[in-house]
Amino acid sequence: MRRLILLRHAKSDWPPGMVDHDRPLAARGRRAAPLIGRWLVDNGFVPDRALVSTAERTRETWALASAGLIAMPAATFEPRIYEAPAWQLLNVIRETPDDVATLLLVGHNTGIEDLAARLIGAGPEDQRRRLARKYPTGGLAVIDCAAHSWRDIAAGIGTLHAFVVPRDLDPEAE
């Protein structure tokens, strides 16, 4: 089994004159990202490796979320994740070495949301409906995939284990 954790970056800001790639987190995002990291630790979902978009807001999200992790997993800042559609994210995931059991990907919508929808074939119906309605900033899906290798990850192979958004952890966070 492989465990894939899909994290959409936390709420970002858009200062005047700034290009999209360089946008930082908003104050709300800086409050939310550590909550997600704490949730990962509290629930035993510490990744072996993290693939993070090169955008500033994803890098900040990961820095704040991972600060509370006991053993910091190796992070790779991957330019192909930025603005990537689901099929491209899937190709990046399939390149993961098989010694990685739990992979976390920090990216953007619509790619993250579309990838989750494509991979998930089972799991609690209420959580699946909730994810399908909206994958907000700071949203995190834990998907268990019945695959021996990351190369085998395909549509419908995943079981949604959890879907959490910052508002679940603190009503002021989102």
The radius of gyration over CA amounts to 15 Å
Spatial strand arrangement across the major sheet = 3-2-4-1-6-7-5
Specify the helix fraction band. Answer: 25-40%
CATH fold-level topology: Rossmann fold
CA-CA gap between termini: 32 Å
Q: Which stretches are low in confidence, meaning pLDDT under 50 for 5 or more residues running?
A: none
Order of helices and strands: EHEHEHEHEHEEH
How many DSSP helices? 6
Can you identify the CATH superfamily?
Phosphoglycerate mutase-like
| Structural domain count | 1
Number of strands: 7
Helix/strand-derived category reads alpha/beta
Query: What do the pLDDT scores average to?
Result: 94
CATH hierarchy, class: Alpha Beta
* Beta-strand content: 15-25%
Q: In the CATH hierarchy, what is the architecture at level 2? A: 3-Layer(aba) Sandwich
Per the principal axes of the C-alpha atoms, what is the gross shape?
Answer: globular
Largest sheet, described in full?
Answer: 7 strands, mixed
